[in-house]
Amino acid sequence: MGKGLVDELKKEFEIEDEWLPMEIHPGTPQEGVLLEEKFPGFDREAMYANLRRSGAPYGIDFGTMKVLSNSRKALEAGEFAREHGKFDEYHELIFHAYFTETRDIGEVELLVELAQKAGLDADELRAALEDGRYLPRLESTLDLAHHYGITGTPTFVINNKYALVGAQPLDRMRAALRQIAAEEQAE
User: Where does the DSBA-like thioredoxin domain start and stop, copy by copy (predicted)?
Assistant: First the structure.
C-alpha cells in the first residue's frame, strides 16, 4: 500500500523515497505469536475491513492473519536485496506473502524462496542471515524511529522534519504534501 501510494504521488510531486527496515514488535518470538495473545480484545475483523478498503485502490488484497510473525529476518533479507539492487522486487514479494497470502515471514525458507524469485542468490542470503550482517542497519533505523517518535508503519518522514503515520488515503497525502510545501516556501 505504501509503495503504490508513493508511486502515485510521484506523478504529481518531486519525491525521493528511501524505504527503511522497521521492526515494530521486536519482542515477537521467532515462531511468531497469535494476534489474540499479543493484542487481547483487539477487533481483527474491523482492522482488516479498514485495510481492505485502504488497499483496494492499489489492487492490494489483504488476507486475515492469525499470527504476528517475527519480521527481523525478513527485514535483514530486505537489506540484502537492497544491497544487491533488488529491493523493490523483494519488497513486493514479501509484502504479498505476508499481507495477502498470510504466510509466516519469520521462516527463513520462505525468505530464501522469495529472494530467489526476486533474482537473488539463495546461498548468499542464507549466509547473510546466519552472520547477522544487516542487524546494525535495523538497530540504526530503530534509533532513527525513536528520534522521530515513530511507533507504526508505514510512516512517511518528509524533509527530515514532518512525520505522517499510518496508511493514509491518497487525497490526505496530497493535501499534506501541499501544506508542507507551502510552509517550507513561507520560511
Answer: 18-177
